[in-house]
């Protein structure tokens, strides 16, 4: 069985939704994972924010505006009266529920339920569409088998235990549809796998049933060797290893959710990144194998803050770095890059919600300097210790740009450099010319 995930743009209009059958093969065993229709999750976030703030009037107006969009969507997707009626029943139910929240106490629990409505709508409407054209399919409720544990980590054995019996109940069916992103938490409440989590859902399902392959369908033909939004002449990468893909996803390649690589990697499930708008394009295959002796791609991550802690107490002192890291652990703030010298440590973060408290605690160790508005540029490829010349080519490509930090040797797959964000576009273009032209 294959897992096929389609993002919001792939189901962003009735026309796009109907064209999924150019890709989905009802005669092959497939689980189709759908995101919410593009724009829906943003609208639901807005609705939830108004309700949380107590502004029931504006929240209700947003519910009505989104409802009207779905009424039009249903008319275009389901022109036949019988199925249009079914579609209207679905949206009336979901938007009736949303409208009713204006009269209740609204907490973070209700917020998660609101955010789940997008995927529930897209999958149910697609299931009705398939029924309207005579294509057999089974709608599988993700809330019946997607679950996170007490640490908010996905519970893959739970998914295996509850999903496989559902599939076996419908042995005569080959096409299954389910929701991306949504799940239940350890308390049984509706929750989610965070934004972009539909990729994660697909990878988790692939791991849970040991699928033949996971396919992530988006609006770009695979992962490119640079950011096509700012660099001309980028090309899709034919093959990446899981480690290389994870580095690129974490450091800015938007096509893939960073966490979605790990379940497939652990259970050795190949992942393909493919283009809904150009189904014949080869895309990118992600497996345990990688082409050796090549630089694969360049990515950049914005919104980076650099922190330098300078202290004479670091000199020959053990336990110093542990105490520094404990500060960030207390405030649940991940660290991206780190470099050290005998008397200083520099590191970067991209979450600054607790920055003032972090700085206050770090000042007990020594002098603290903070630099904002930086970007991490990450070059991914074969940087194993036996290789030579690649790192020098990276630095040569940036010789005219001030570099704040360099991280090399922490992985066999990347060199990361910290620069001011104002130089990011120039850095990406210069590296592209140096490494790929």
TrEMBL record:
Pfam families: AA_kinase, ACT_9. It catalyses: L-aspartate + ATP = 4-phospho-L-aspartate + ADP. InterPro entries: AceGlu_kinase-like_sf, ACT-like_dom_sf, ACT_Aspartokinase, Asp/Glu/Uridylate_kinase, Asp_kin_monofn, Asp_kinase, Aspartate_kinase_CS. GO terms for cellular component: cytosol. Coiled coil: none annotated. PROSITE patterns: ASPARTOKINASE. GO terms for biological process: homoserine biosynthetic process; lysine biosynthetic process via diaminopimelate; threonine biosynthetic process. The keyword ATP-binding applies. ATP binds at residues 5-8, 218-219, 229. Residues 2-275 form the Aspartate/glutamate/uridylate kinase domain. Substrate binds at residues 41, 119. This is Aspartokinase. It comes from Pedobacter psychrodurus.
């Amino acid at each position: 069985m294959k897992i096929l995930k389609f993002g919001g743009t792939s189901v962003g209009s009735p026309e796009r939704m109907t064209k999924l059958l150019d890709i989905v093969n009802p005669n092959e065993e497939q689980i189709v994972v759908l995101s919410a229709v593009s724009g829906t999750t943003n609208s639901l976030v807005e609705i939830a924010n108004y309700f949380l703030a107590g502004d029931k009037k504006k929240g209700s107006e947003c519910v009505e505006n989104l409802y009207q969009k779905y009424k039009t969507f249903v008319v275009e997707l389901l022109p036949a009266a019988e199925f249009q009626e079914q579609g209207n029943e679905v949206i009336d139910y979901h938007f009736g529920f949303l409208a009713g929240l204006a009269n209740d106490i609204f907490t973070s629990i209700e917020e998660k339920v609101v955010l789940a409505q997008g995927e529930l709508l897209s999958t149910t409407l697609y299931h009705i569409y398939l029924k309207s054209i005579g294509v057999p399919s089974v709608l599988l409720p993700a809330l019946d088998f997607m679950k996170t544990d007490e640490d908010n980590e996905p519970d893959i054995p739970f998914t295996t235990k509850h999903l496989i019996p559902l599939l076996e109940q419908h042995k005569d069916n080959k096409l299954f549809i389910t929701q991306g992103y949504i799940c239940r938490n350890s308390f049984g409440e509706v929750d989610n796998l965070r934004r972009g989590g539909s990729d994660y859902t697909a990878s988790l399902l692939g791991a849970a049933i040991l699928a033949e392959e996971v396919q992530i369908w988006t609006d770009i033909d695979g992962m490119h060797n640079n950011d096509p939004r700012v660099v001309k002449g980028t090309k899709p990468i034919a093959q990446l290893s899981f480690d290389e893909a994870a580095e690129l996803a974490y450091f800015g390649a938007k096509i893939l959710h960073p966490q979605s690589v790990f379940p497939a990697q652990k259970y050795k499930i190949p992942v393909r990144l493919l283009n809904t708008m150009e189904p014949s394009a080869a895309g990118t295959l992600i497996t345990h194998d990688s082409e050796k002796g090549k630089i694969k791609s360049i990515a950049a991550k914005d919104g980076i803050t650099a922190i330098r802690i300078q202290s004479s107490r670091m000199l020959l002192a053990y336990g110093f770095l542990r105490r520094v890291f404990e500060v960030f652990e207390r405030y649940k703030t991940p660290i991206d890059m780190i470099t050290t010298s005998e008397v200083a440590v520099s590191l970067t973060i991209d979450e600054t919600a607790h920055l003032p408290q972090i700085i206050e605690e770090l000042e007990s160790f020594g002098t603290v300097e903070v630099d904002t508005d930086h970007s991490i540029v990450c070059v991914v490829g074969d940087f194993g210790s036996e290789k030579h010349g690649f790192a020098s080519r990276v630095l040569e490509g940036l010789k005219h740009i001030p570099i704040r930090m360099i991280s090399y040797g922490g992985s066999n797959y990347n060199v990361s450099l910290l620069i001011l964000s104002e130089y990011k576009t120039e850095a990406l273009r210069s590296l592209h010319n140096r490494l790929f032209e």
